Amino acid sequence: MCEYDVVVIGGGHAGCEASAASARAGARTVLVTQKIDTIGEMSCNPSFGGIGKGVLVREVDAMDGLCGRIADLGGVQFRILNRSKGPAVHGPRAQVDRVIYKRHMLQTLESYPGLDLRAGSVADILLERPTDLDERSLKRLASQDSASAVAAATVTGVRLESGEIIRARKVVITTGTFLGGEIHIGLKAFPSGRKGEAASTGLSKSLKDAGFRLGRMKTGTPPRLAGSTIDFSRMPKQLGDMPVTPFSFVHDSVPYANDQVACYQTHTTPAVHKVIEANFDQSIHIRETVRGPRYCPSLESKIKRFSEKDSHVIWLEPEGLPEHTDVVYPNGISNTMPEDIQLKFLRLIPGLENVTMTQPGYGVEYDHIDPRELKRTLETKRVTGLYMAGQINGTTGYEEAAAQGILAGANAGLAAGHDKAPDRAGETPQLVLDRSDGYLGVLIDDLITRGVEEPYRVFTARSEYRLSSRADNADIRLTRRAAALGLIRDTSRLARLDAVEADMAQAQALLSQVVHLPHEWEAKLGGDRRVGRNGARTSALDMIQKGFLAEDMSADSRQPENIAPELMPKARKCTGGPRISDIVPGWADVPLNIRRRVATEAMYHGYLRQQQLEANTFKREESLRLPVDIDYSQIRVLSREEVDRLSRVRPDTLGAARRIGGITPGGMLALLKHVRRAADA
């Protein structure tokens, strides 16, 4: 038997971030996974980021997480998605070499101070239950409604399938699709969490015995193709951005910036759809009793749901550099058809007439908990000291998993450190983010207040604070906050942030120093632009705020300016006119990333001011804590439905209660009065 402060179960993206964050928090941590050499495996798509998701990667990086830095090291194509729109919805994305990513992740964790890696399968979580309760009381606690559960036990460690026991103060479960995992190919089904690897079945039973109610979800992955058998000459080519925008705030460039690979576009055809429709009965995975991802559906689901469409886009994405692999990932055709049917329809796709399939696509069903069981720290309400992160909470995607991992691991490590402190004075330090703090805060809040009915993914429309929660400012939002909790190990990160803020202040001063009268601005802007007739002198910074000037936001700094007209109505007038550097002396000498950040802040100035007022109101509501044992049935104004919803979710703040569907304004007012009366009593 051995002892640690924190045990992390699972070596996927959530587990990697959780174990590293726990170690950074000062906890002696062990990562337990079935196979050491699969740590950091990119199980599905060979990419990180995207719309919404790219902001999550930046937020993880801002708190000294790993995935952004390592994706930069293995990135073979970088793009900013949505670049034609405003910076608030820009989505950093990178194609990543699987071999390089996994190698760097394993090397990083093997040498991470305070972290050990252990090969093994966890069969059981060890719990300590109250000794003053009889068996009937324990059963009643274990059978509580999942979302309203209160702690009936405390975790004390884990037992491996080998029989070995690892004692720990805290345990973080990040099992991904391995928890009760079952792979489907056609009508075949067999236990597995990823092709060629065993599922975790004992742990599912252990969680059920602890009282957790498990649900089932499904996901899938497309077949893999041999690139040498594809005719790329018939397909549109997509290249990466130049200059490259790295994920990590500590990187100025990436190793393969000048050797980026191309992606290619093709599409399905009516003949493809006909083959799949004729074989719907050959796949058990498309049954509707288990929910799959709505925003990344299988090809079968798309053909069923959008029967009027005769074509769906497919992106052919190399899985790495040519010297490492010839495998191509066909993004958009995840499916679970029998292998012979898969090969048949693949060869009906333009450019794939002679393709070789190196691995068939398959579906995975897996267990998950109701995330309303969780606190904002991702500790479970039912078992003290037990944390969950990743797909076990009902999410989908590398980025969502990594983001939950860093938060759960940090909080487990911080709590373990507080528990073993000699005096244990004060409250346990916590990393808790709300909706106004960033997309990670939105992700956690959605999970714990609304639960999931389908695999949850992040996208920009989920955040009401997306103008301030951008990819470019995650460091300003989160780095010092993480540092205050001792979660920043790379001290150069703070020095770089200080330098960035100093550079931004100098750039703003540069813009503020260039001042002209309205008629002088009109002469400089050219054309029939009307700046105003009030006679007031206006700075270049003001002109950006008003939409008359804009910084180049295009992929290549040599391209024409690319501005979001819906956010800057007047900015359309400056397209083709002078750039900021034509008017402001020294502006061209300011680093490109600083110019863009300053211009973005100025462009959104009015919106950000209004959003900050809304955020302040939101934080006031979030500061009103609700007792976990509040009896909602005693608040007479609440309807039976409101009592039921509030009792089921058990929101921890007044703001969280407001976000539960079905709670009326009158109900909220009654709840506010009740909380204030209780506080005054």
Summarize the entry for a quick read:
With 681 residues, the protein is of the alpha+beta class.
Number of helices: 21
Computed CA radius of gyration, to the nearest angstrom:
27 Å
Query: In percent, how helical is the residue content?
Result: 25-40%
Number of distinct beta strands: 23
Taking all residues together, what is the mean pLDDT? 89
Largest pleated sheet: 8 strands, mixed
- Gap between N and C termini: 49 Å
| β-sheet strand percentage | 15-25%
Any low-confidence stretches, pLDDT <50, length ≥5?
557-575
Return the structural class. alpha+beta
Task: Indicate the overall shape.
Answer: globular
Features:
alpha+beta, six-stranded antiparallel sheet, 17% strand, 681 residues, globular, single chain
Chart the SSEs and their pairings.
Layout: E1 2-9, H1 13-24, E2 29-33, E3 47-49, H2 53-62, H3 67-74, E4 75-81, E5 91-96, H4 98-110, E6 115-119, E7 122-128, H5 135-142, E8 153-160, E9 165-173, E10 182-185, E11 188-191, H6 202-209, E12 214-221, E13 224-226, E14 237-238, E15 263-267, H7 270-277, H8 299-305, E16 313-318, E17 327-331, H9 339-346, E18 357-359, E19 362-369, E20 383-384, E21 386-388, H10 398-419, H11 439-450, H12 474-484, H13 492-513, E22 515-516, H14 518-525, E23 538-539, H15 540-545, H16 580-583, H17 592-603, H18 605-622, H19 640-649, H20 654-658, H21 665-680
Parallel strand pairs: 1-2, 1-9, 2-6, 8-20, 9-21
Antiparallel strand pairs: 3-5, 4-5, 7-8, 8-9, 10-11, 10-19, 12-19, 13-17, 13-18, 14-15, 15-16, 16-17, 22-23
